[in-house]
Protein backbone atom coordinates (compact mmCIF):
# COMPACT_ATOMS: atom_id res chain seq x y z
CA UNK A 1 0.00 0.00 0.00
CA UNK A 2 2.85 2.34 0.88
CA UNK A 3 4.64 1.71 -2.42
CA UNK A 4 1.39 1.91 -4.40
CA UNK A 5 0.45 5.27 -2.83
CA UNK A 6 3.83 6.91 -3.47
CA UNK A 7 4.07 5.37 -6.93
CA UNK A 8 0.75 7.03 -7.77
CA UNK A 9 1.93 10.35 -6.29
CA UNK A 10 5.13 10.25 -8.38
CA UNK A 11 3.22 9.45 -11.57
CA UNK A 12 0.67 12.24 -11.01
CA UNK A 13 3.21 14.92 -10.05
CA UNK A 14 5.66 14.16 -12.88
CA UNK A 15 2.80 14.07 -15.40
CA UNK A 16 1.57 17.46 -14.15
CA UNK A 17 5.09 18.88 -14.47
CA UNK A 18 5.36 17.51 -18.02
CA UNK A 19 2.09 19.11 -19.17
CA UNK A 20 1.83 22.27 -17.06
CA UNK A 21 5.41 23.51 -16.57
CA UNK A 22 6.77 25.75 -19.32
CA UNK A 23 10.35 26.84 -19.91
CA UNK A 24 11.19 30.48 -19.28
CA UNK A 25 12.54 31.49 -22.68
CA UNK A 26 14.28 34.59 -21.30
CA UNK A 27 16.51 32.53 -19.00
CA UNK A 28 17.67 29.99 -21.61
CA UNK A 29 21.43 30.56 -22.23
CA UNK A 30 22.62 31.50 -25.67
CA UNK A 31 24.76 28.37 -25.90
CA UNK A 32 22.80 25.20 -25.34
CA UNK A 33 24.51 22.12 -23.93
CA UNK A 34 23.40 19.76 -26.68
CA UNK A 35 20.98 19.62 -29.58
CA UNK A 36 19.78 16.03 -29.19
CA UNK A 37 20.44 12.54 -27.88
CA UNK A 38 23.23 11.83 -30.40
CA UNK A 39 25.05 15.04 -29.45
CA UNK A 40 24.66 14.18 -25.76
CA UNK A 41 26.31 10.78 -26.11
CA UNK A 42 29.02 12.16 -28.35
CA UNK A 43 29.71 14.77 -25.68
CA UNK A 44 29.76 12.11 -22.93
CA UNK A 45 32.34 10.04 -24.81
CA UNK A 46 34.52 13.09 -25.41
CA UNK A 47 34.38 13.90 -21.66
CA UNK A 48 35.17 10.37 -20.48
CA UNK A 49 38.16 10.13 -22.87
CA UNK A 50 39.87 12.98 -21.03
CA UNK A 51 42.83 11.50 -19.05
CA UNK A 52 41.91 13.25 -15.77
CA UNK A 53 38.26 12.15 -15.98
CA UNK A 54 39.24 8.59 -16.91
CA UNK A 55 41.63 8.34 -13.93
CA UNK A 56 39.02 9.82 -11.58
CA UNK A 57 36.37 7.37 -12.81
CA UNK A 58 38.71 4.40 -12.22
CA UNK A 59 39.46 5.64 -8.70
CA UNK A 60 35.83 6.27 -7.80
CA UNK A 61 34.74 2.90 -9.22
CA UNK A 62 37.13 1.07 -6.87
CA UNK A 63 37.24 3.37 -3.82
CA UNK A 64 34.31 1.68 -2.01
CA UNK A 65 35.46 -1.94 -2.32
CA UNK A 66 36.88 -1.84 1.22
CA UNK A 67 33.54 -1.29 2.93
CA UNK A 68 31.20 -3.11 0.54
CA UNK A 69 30.86 -6.21 2.75
CA UNK A 70 30.25 -4.20 5.92
CA UNK A 71 27.61 -2.03 4.22
CA UNK A 72 25.76 -4.82 2.42
CA UNK A 73 26.03 -7.83 4.71
CA UNK A 74 26.06 -6.59 8.33
CA UNK A 75 22.29 -6.23 8.66
CA UNK A 76 21.67 -9.64 7.08
CA UNK A 77 24.20 -11.31 9.39
CA UNK A 78 22.68 -9.66 12.47
CA UNK A 79 19.28 -11.07 11.46
CA UNK A 80 20.93 -14.47 10.92
CA UNK A 81 22.33 -14.27 14.46
CA UNK A 82 18.84 -13.71 15.84
CA UNK A 83 18.39 -9.92 15.96
CA UNK A 84 14.72 -9.30 15.02
CA UNK A 85 14.26 -7.50 11.70
CA UNK A 86 11.67 -5.17 13.24
CA UNK A 87 14.20 -4.08 15.89
CA UNK A 88 16.80 -3.30 13.22
CA UNK A 89 14.15 -1.32 11.33
CA UNK A 90 13.35 0.67 14.48
CA UNK A 91 17.05 1.42 14.97
CA UNK A 92 16.97 3.24 11.62
CA UNK A 93 14.52 5.82 13.00
CA UNK A 94 17.11 7.73 15.11
CA UNK A 95 19.28 7.92 11.99
CA UNK A 96 16.72 10.06 10.09
CA UNK A 97 17.40 13.40 11.87
CA UNK A 98 21.12 12.64 11.67
CA UNK A 99 20.85 12.08 7.90
CA UNK A 100 19.08 15.44 7.55
CA UNK A 101 21.59 17.38 9.66
CA UNK A 102 24.82 15.78 8.40
CA UNK A 103 24.79 17.19 4.82
CA UNK A 104 24.22 20.70 6.23
CA UNK A 105 27.16 20.38 8.62
CA UNK A 106 29.51 18.61 6.19
CA UNK A 107 28.83 21.07 3.36
CA UNK A 108 30.72 23.74 5.33
CA UNK A 109 33.88 21.66 5.02
CA UNK A 110 33.39 20.72 1.35
CA UNK A 111 32.71 24.26 0.10
CA UNK A 112 36.41 25.16 -0.11
CA UNK A 113 38.92 24.67 -2.94
CA UNK A 114 39.64 21.01 -2.02
CA UNK A 115 36.35 19.22 -1.27
CA UNK A 116 37.92 15.75 -1.66
CA UNK A 117 39.98 16.27 1.51
CA UNK A 118 36.87 15.37 3.52
CA UNK A 119 36.48 12.22 1.40
CA UNK A 120 40.06 11.15 2.14
CA UNK A 121 39.82 11.86 5.87
CA UNK A 122 36.58 9.88 6.28
CA UNK A 123 37.82 6.78 4.43
CA UNK A 124 40.08 5.21 7.13
CA UNK A 125 37.38 5.67 9.79
CA UNK A 126 34.80 3.99 7.56
CA UNK A 127 37.20 1.10 6.98
CA UNK A 128 37.71 0.71 10.75
CA UNK A 129 33.95 0.69 11.26
CA UNK A 130 33.84 -2.34 8.96
CA UNK A 131 35.90 -4.20 11.58
CA UNK A 132 33.60 -2.87 14.30
CA UNK A 133 30.56 -4.20 12.41
CA UNK A 134 32.26 -7.60 12.18
CA UNK A 135 32.71 -7.45 15.96
CA UNK A 136 28.98 -6.68 16.40
CA UNK A 137 28.07 -9.80 14.40
CA UNK A 138 30.55 -11.92 16.39
CA UNK A 139 29.31 -10.44 19.68
CA UNK A 140 25.60 -11.02 18.98
CA UNK A 141 25.41 -14.73 19.98
CA UNK A 142 27.57 -14.05 23.07
CA UNK A 143 25.05 -11.62 24.62
CA UNK A 144 21.87 -13.23 23.34
CA UNK A 145 19.53 -14.65 26.01
CA UNK A 146 16.05 -16.14 26.08
CA UNK A 147 14.37 -12.72 26.08
CA UNK A 148 16.39 -11.52 23.10
CA UNK A 149 19.23 -9.03 23.28
CA UNK A 150 20.13 -6.63 26.13
CA UNK A 151 19.51 -2.91 25.78
CA UNK A 152 23.24 -2.11 25.89
CA UNK A 153 23.78 -4.23 22.75
CA UNK A 154 21.20 -2.20 20.83
CA UNK A 155 22.80 1.00 22.17
CA UNK A 156 26.18 -0.08 20.76
CA UNK A 157 24.54 -0.94 17.42
CA UNK A 158 22.84 2.49 17.24
CA UNK A 159 26.10 4.26 18.09
CA UNK A 160 27.96 2.21 15.47
CA UNK A 161 25.33 3.02 12.83
CA UNK A 162 25.49 6.72 13.75
CA UNK A 163 29.28 6.81 13.33
CA UNK A 164 28.91 4.93 10.06
CA UNK A 165 26.41 7.51 8.80
CA UNK A 166 28.86 10.32 9.61
CA UNK A 167 31.63 8.71 7.54
CA UNK A 168 29.21 7.72 4.76
CA UNK A 169 27.75 11.23 4.38
CA UNK A 170 31.20 12.84 4.66
CA UNK A 171 32.30 10.85 1.62
CA UNK A 172 28.99 11.29 -0.22
CA UNK A 173 28.75 15.07 0.20
CA UNK A 174 32.45 15.51 -0.58
CA UNK A 175 32.24 13.60 -3.87
CA UNK A 176 29.09 15.50 -4.90
CA UNK A 177 30.79 18.82 -4.08
CA UNK A 178 33.85 17.79 -6.11
CA UNK A 179 31.71 16.75 -9.08
CA UNK A 180 29.90 20.09 -8.98
CA UNK A 181 33.19 21.99 -8.73
CA UNK A 182 34.98 20.35 -11.66
CA UNK A 183 32.00 20.21 -14.04
CA UNK A 184 32.23 22.65 -16.94
CA UNK A 185 29.37 25.17 -16.43
CA UNK A 186 28.62 25.16 -20.16
CA UNK A 187 27.87 21.42 -20.10
CA UNK A 188 27.26 21.15 -16.36
CA UNK A 189 24.22 18.91 -16.48
CA UNK A 190 25.82 16.31 -18.76
CA UNK A 191 29.16 16.47 -16.95
CA UNK A 192 27.66 16.11 -13.44
CA UNK A 193 25.28 13.34 -14.49
CA UNK A 194 28.20 11.33 -15.86
CA UNK A 195 30.36 11.76 -12.73
CA UNK A 196 27.47 11.12 -10.33
CA UNK A 197 26.45 8.00 -12.27
CA UNK A 198 29.99 6.63 -12.05
CA UNK A 199 30.06 7.50 -8.34
CA UNK A 200 26.79 5.64 -7.72
CA UNK A 201 28.00 2.66 -9.75
CA UNK A 202 31.20 2.63 -7.68
CA UNK A 203 29.07 2.08 -4.57
CA UNK A 204 26.67 -0.47 -6.06
CA UNK A 205 28.81 -3.04 -7.85
CA UNK A 206 31.03 -3.87 -4.82
CA UNK A 207 27.93 -4.43 -2.66
CA UNK A 208 26.47 -6.77 -5.29
CA UNK A 209 29.73 -8.75 -5.47
CA UNK A 210 29.94 -8.86 -1.65
CA UNK A 211 26.42 -10.32 -1.42
CA UNK A 212 27.24 -12.85 -4.14
CA UNK A 213 30.39 -13.95 -2.27
CA UNK A 214 28.73 -14.36 1.15
CA UNK A 215 27.81 -18.04 0.69
CA UNK A 216 31.11 -19.24 -0.88
CA UNK A 217 33.15 -17.46 1.81
CA UNK A 218 31.02 -18.47 4.80
CA UNK A 219 32.44 -21.28 6.94
CA UNK A 220 29.67 -23.72 7.88
CA UNK A 221 29.55 -26.72 10.18
CA UNK A 222 27.05 -29.56 9.83
CA UNK A 223 25.47 -31.08 12.93
CA UNK A 224 24.36 -34.70 12.63
CA UNK A 225 25.41 -35.20 9.00
CA UNK A 226 28.63 -37.16 8.79
CA UNK A 227 30.79 -36.65 5.73
CA UNK A 228 29.10 -33.39 4.71
CA UNK A 229 30.81 -30.00 4.90
CA UNK A 230 27.77 -27.85 4.08
CA UNK A 231 29.97 -26.08 1.54
CA UNK A 232 27.40 -26.55 -1.24
CA UNK A 233 23.68 -25.85 -1.31
CA UNK A 234 22.98 -29.60 -1.73
CA UNK A 235 25.03 -30.49 1.36
CA UNK A 236 23.36 -27.74 3.39
CA UNK A 237 19.93 -29.08 2.35
CA UNK A 238 20.89 -32.59 3.52
TrEMBL record:
Source taxon at top rank: Eukaryota
GO terms for cellular component: membrane
Main subcellular location: membrane
GO MF entries: acetyl-CoA transmembrane transporter activity
Transmembrane portions of the chain: 6-22, 43-67, 87-111, 123-140, 152-175
Keywords: Membrane, Transmembrane, Transmembrane helix
Keyword Nucleotide-binding carried by entry: no
Topology with respect to the bilayer: Multi-pass membrane protein
An example Gene Ontology biological process: acetyl-CoA transmembrane transport
Keyword Transmembrane helix: yes
Protein localization: Membrane
PANTHER family (alphabetical): ACETYL-COENZYME A TRANSPORTER 1, SOLUTE CARRIER FAMILY 33 ACETYL-COA TRANSPORTER -RELATED
Protein name, entry field: ACATN protein
Gene that encodes the chain: Slc33a1
